[in-house]
């Protein structure tokens, strides 16, 4: 599924304040929230308030949302990740008359620890919805701000992971891991859409890519995935990829009663899909991205690819027309040097081999508004172009279909064979000796062979029929040489 999950926090991670406002799901002006009080969603699924993850003195206090009915503290959103308050100052959260939530120290200094950024002042209220989304909304129901737009490390059902076209400079919304099991401050890893191309999703370790979902093919789809648990119960996830004039994003939903299913980017850099198992009283991992070693970014080296459908286990292979750069290292499972061409390219005279069901490499150039034929020509006439891929992305932000032409020069890095499913690509790879003229001759020879075989079958069937009609008739297979003079 290519989506995240958070590790469960056990007895070492405890709430230091017990909830006492469990019946109220909203915060209104002049009724601040203090440590020891919480608001709880209408269905009792989620709670919002102050929590602590350690026993230090003074305790670091965070403002966040967690699952209310699960014994292990499982936090899904943190407001002040970088600026914890302390219990020595008795911080408070207030909803102001400007429709902003303001977390401030309670020492009389008025120091603001964290605040929202609602641009419109109006009489409003903050409500914790049954989805786990904290929203500030006006009396007419308009959402002025929501926590779903400011993810931490967890993607809940209904959240969007993507990018808005008018926010390209910010890189869009990303999941950012915790530093550790007891430290919700921003960690090393992040997960989101590549702002440079809008076509790929990465896990980054700082600025270094760790894993990548290949270029978007334009598949606007809704699908479902069913996961089987050891206890026999099933969990169904409904996935959607959506694009419109304002944004492109992916999201998922779950059936009623299974909201304790979440995606999390762990502090170790893994993306996990987890669900709470009532029988074992623990989080069960349903799926994990980057569980296959060879699909780690660049693991198979230049011109190598991770064959995820290989039997019995996924493994690194060389692209067609290539061989391991260092055979002994490759056979020992060391793939970083990648592969090299068996025969060097001659230039623009070499043709292209179609490789279906692929995850195309990274580091491409996106050429917009090219037909399939124009995309092929774009690469063919550029003698340094080594591969191309084409897709129609559907309706674009400026109207009409956006045709996606990707071209590569130099090394091909982080390719993959991913099998048949919606969204796979065909990579057209330039191979020495596959010139256009030789391709035509191959097609001509094939046509002659097919005609010869079909003609022979026709004559033989005719002979058999005549033998039934003419008991003493004879049939001879004639020469077909005259057909090709």
Describe the overall structure.
The structure is a single chain. This protein has 485 residues and is mainly beta. 10% of the residues lie in helices and 38% in strands. The protein has three helices and 34 strands. It has an eight-stranded mixed sheet, with helices on one face. Strands 2, 3, 4, 5 and 6 form a five-stranded antiparallel sheet that branches. Strands 1-10-11-12 form a four-stranded antiparallel sheet, with no helix packed on it. Strand 2 and strand 3 form a beta hairpin. The protein is elongated.
Fraction of residues in β-strands: 35-45%
- The helix count comes to 3
**Which stretches are poorly predicted, pLDDT < 50 over at least 5 residues?**
1-23, 437-485
Structural class computed from helices and strand pairing:
mainly beta
- Termini distance? 58 Å
Strand order of the largest sheet: 26-25-33-29-34-31-32-30
Quaternary organisation of the protein chains = single chain
Biggest sheet, open or closed, and with what strands and sense?
8 strands, mixed
Estimated radius of gyration: 30 Å
Number of strands: 34
Overall morphology: elongated
Please give the share of residues in helix: under 10%
Q: For the residues shown, what is the average pLDDT?
A: 81
């Amino acid at each position: 599924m290519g989506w995240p999950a958070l590790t469960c926090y056990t007895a070492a991670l405890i709430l230091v304040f017990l909830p006492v406002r469990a019946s109220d799901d909203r915060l209104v002006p002049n009724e601040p929230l203090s440590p020891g009080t919480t608001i709880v969603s209408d269905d009792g699924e989620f709670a919002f308030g102050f929590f602590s993850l350690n026993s230090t003195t003074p305790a670091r206090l965070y403002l966040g949302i967690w699952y209310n009915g699960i014994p292990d503290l499982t936090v899904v959103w943190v407001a002040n990740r970088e600026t914890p308050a302390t219990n020595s100052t008795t911080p408070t959260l207030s909803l102001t008359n400007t429709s902003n939530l303001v977390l401030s120290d309670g020492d009389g200094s008025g120091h603001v620890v964290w605040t929202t950024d609602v641009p419109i002042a109006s009489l409003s209220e903050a409500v914790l919805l049954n989805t786990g989304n904290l929203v500030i909304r006006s009396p007419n129901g308009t959402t002025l701000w929501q926590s779903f737009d400011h993810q931490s490390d967890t993607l809940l059902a209904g959240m969007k992971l993507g990018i808005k076209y008018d926010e390209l400079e910010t890189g869009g919304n990303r999941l950012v891991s915790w530093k550790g099991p007891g430290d919700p401050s921003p960690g090393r890893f992040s997960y989101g859409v590549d702002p440079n191309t809008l076509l790929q999703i990465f896990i980054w370790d700082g600025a270094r890519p760790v894993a990548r979902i290949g270029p978007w093919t334009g598949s606007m789809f809704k699908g479902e995935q069913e996961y089987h648990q050891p206890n026999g119960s099933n969990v169904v996830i409904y996935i959607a990829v959506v694009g419109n004039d304002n944004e492109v994003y992916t999201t998922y939903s779950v059936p009623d009663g299974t909201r304790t299913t979440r995606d999390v980017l762990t502090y170790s850099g893994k993306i996990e899909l987890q669900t709470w198992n009532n029988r074992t009283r623990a989080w069960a991992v349903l799926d994990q991205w980057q569980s296959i070693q060879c699909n780690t970014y660049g693991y198979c080296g230049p011109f190598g690819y991770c064959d995820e459908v290989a039997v019995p286990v996924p493994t690194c292979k060389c692209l067609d027309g290539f061989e391991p750069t260092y055979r002994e290292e490759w056979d020992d499972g060391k793939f970083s040097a990648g592969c090299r061409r068996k025969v060097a390219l001659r230039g623009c005279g070499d043709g292209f081999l179609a490789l279906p069901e692929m995850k195309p490499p990274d580091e491409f150039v996106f050429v917009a508004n090219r037909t399939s034929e124009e995309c092929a020509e774009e690469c063919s006439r550029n003698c340094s172009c080594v591969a191309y891929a084409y897709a129609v992305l559907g309706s674009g932000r400026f109207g009409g279909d956006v045709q996606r032409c990707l071209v590569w020069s130099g090394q091909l890095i982080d390719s993959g064979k991913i099998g048949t499913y919606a969204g796979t690509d065909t990579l057209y790879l330039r191979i020495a000796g596959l010139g256009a003229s030789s391709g035509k001759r191959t097609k001509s020879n094939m046509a002659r062979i097919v005609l010869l075989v079909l003609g022979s079958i026709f004559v033989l069937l005719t002979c058999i029929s005549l033998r039934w009609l003419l008991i003493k008739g004879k049939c001879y297979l004639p020469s077909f040489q005259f057909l090709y003079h």
